[in-house]
Design brief:
The protein is an alpha/beta fold and 245 residues long. It folds into two domains: 117 residues, Roll (2,3-Dihydroxybiphenyl 1,2-Dioxygenase, domain 1), CATH 3.10.180; 94 residues. The chain has eight helices and eight strands, in the order βαββββαβββαααααα. The strands form two sheets. A four-stranded mixed sheet has the order 1-4-3-2, with helices on one face. The protein has a four-stranded mixed sheet with strand order 5-8-7-6. A hairpin with a 2-residue loop joins strand 3 and strand 4. Helix 3 packs antiparallel against helix 4. It is elongated. The N and C termini lie far apart (75 Å). 33% of the residues are buried.
Length: 245
C-alpha cells in the first residue's frame, strides 16, 4: 500500500461573513448562481455555486457593517475577465433592471482590455475577478513614463486596482494643472475622457459639461479618438463629447 503524502490537489473555499441571508440569497441568485446549500437555523450557512466557483457563507460578527465594506473577500483567478463581467451584468439587468456600479451591492464597471473587476455582495464582501496573466502595476504610475502620461497610468491604477474614483479624479485634476499645457493633445483628451467617465463615482458630475467642452475643442485623429475610448469604461458617454473627425 503506497505511503500517504501531501499532494498538490487541494481546494480552498472562501468562508464569507453574511449579514443578511435573505439579501445574500437574492443577490447571488440574481447573478445566476445556484444555491447548493441553504440553512438559517440553528445557525446560518449558505453555499452558492456557478461554473467552477463555490462561495460559502456563515453569520457575520456584529462588528461587520456592509456600508463600510469591511467584511471579507476573495480573489477569483480566471483566464479572461470580460466574459464574467458580461455574464454577471446581463444577469443583474435581466433580474433587477440594472447592474449598479455604486453602493452596496454592486459590480464595478469594466473598461475594455482591463484585467480585473470587483463584485461587492450585500454584506460588503469583495470578490475580485483577476485575469491570470495580469501585468504588474506601479502605484504612482509607471517609472518608464513621465508628465501627464504617468498621471494617466496612476489614475488607471487608482480606479481599477484601488477602486477609488475620488483618488483617481484628484490625480487627474492636479495632473492636468501641472502637465496639461505641455502635454500632447491626445494625452489631454484621455485625461478629460477619464474625468468624464469617473464623474459618477467621484461625485463630480456637475463638471462633466466643462470637461466635455474642453475635450470637444481638441483636434484628434481617428486613432487618437479610439485611444480616448479605450481608456474609459463608458465608451458611449465619452464618445458624445469627442470632436468629430
Amino acid at each position: 500500500m503506497p505511503e500517504e503524502s501531501v499532494r498538490p490537489n487541494e481546494t480552498t473555499v472562501p468562508l464569507l461573513p453574511c449579514t443578511s441571508a435573505e439579501e445574500t440569497l437574492a443577490f447571488w441568485r440574481a447573478l445566476g448562481f445556484e444555491t447548493a446549500y441553504e440553512q438559517t437555523r440553528p445557525y446560518l450557512y449558505l453555499v452558492f455555486t456557478w461554473s467552477g466557483i463555490a462561495l460559502h457563507y456563515a453569520k457575520a460578527p456584529e462588528v461587520v457593517d456592509p456600508a463600510k465594506e469591511n467584511a471579507g473577500g476573495c480573489l477569483v483567478m480566471v483566464d479572461a475577465v470580460a466574459p464574467y463581467h458580461a455574464s454577471f451584468t446581463a444577469a443583474l439587468r435581466a433580474a433587477r433592471g440594472k447592474a449598479p456600479s455604486t453602493g452596496v451591492p454592486r459590480i464595478t464597471r469594466y473598461r475594455r482590455g482591463a484585467s480585473r473587476f470587483t463584485v461587492v455582495d450585500p454584506s460588503g464582501n469583495s470578490l475580485v475577478f483577476i485575469q491570470r496573466d495580469e501585468p504588474e502595476v506601479e502605484y504612482g504610475g509607471s517609472s518608464s513614463l513621465a508628465g501627464l502620461a504617468k498621471v494617466l497610468d496612476n489614475a488607471r491604477v487608482l480606479s481599477e486596482f484601488k477602486q477609488d474614483p475620488k483618488a483617481a479624479f484628484r490625480a487627474l485634476n492636479s495632473g492636468l494643472k501641472r502637465h496639461g499645457d505641455g502635454a500632447p493633445a491626445v494625452e489631454r483628451a484621455v485625461a478629460l475622457g477619464m474625468l468624464i467617465d469617473l464623474a459618477e463615482g467621484a461625485g463630480t458630475r456637475e463638471r462633466v459639461p466643462e470637461w466635455g467642452r474642453l475635450l470637444g475643442g481638441l483636434e484628434l485623429t481617428g486613432p487618437e479618438r479610439e485611444r480616448v475610448l479605450d481608456a474609459v469604461a463608458d465608451r458611449d458617454l465619452v464618445a458624445g463629447w469627442l470632436p468629430r473627425g
